[in-house]
Amino acid sequence: MESTSEPQGLPVSLLTSCDTSAFKVEVLASFSKDGIGKLCQTDEAILQYGRRTYDKLKGKQDKKAEVKRTVMAGYAAISVLVCKFQRKV
Question: Is pTM beyond 0.85 here?
């Protein structure tokens, strides 16, 4: 007799592989304390973007400085767009 079971999804918390402490130390702590930097550190959607970008690139251990610059540049660009959009609304 074959046993069948319905596939079940995993909780989102198990799907995230981000080492949050490394992300905080290497990326979040490096932002300036201006409006864009604060937005990068507090906005949940932007944080999620930054964590995902960091996760994708953190495997490149030989290019650690480049990974940090790449993540921070994209992260800050998104924050600038969000700030400009919020001013227009």
Answer: no
Please name the residue that has the structure tokens 């409006």. Answer: 35
Identify the burial level of 27 via C-beta atoms within 10 angstroms of its C-beta, where 0-12 means exposed, 13-18 middle and 19 or more buried: buried
Within a domain: 2:
no
Instruction: Please write the tens of the pLDDT for every residue from 3-47.
Output: 565 655 544 543 454 455 788 888 888 888 888 888 888 888 888
User: How far apart (Å, rounded) are the C-alpha atoms in residues 82 and 69?
Assistant: 20
What does DSSP assign to residue 73?
H
Indicate whether 5 belongs to any domain.
no
Match 């992300």 to its residue by tokens.
23
Query: pLDDT by residue (tens digit) across 39-72?
Result: 888 888 888 888 888 888 877 777 878 888 888 8
Number of domains in the chain: 1
Residue 36 lies in a domain: yes
Does residue 24 form part of some domain? yes
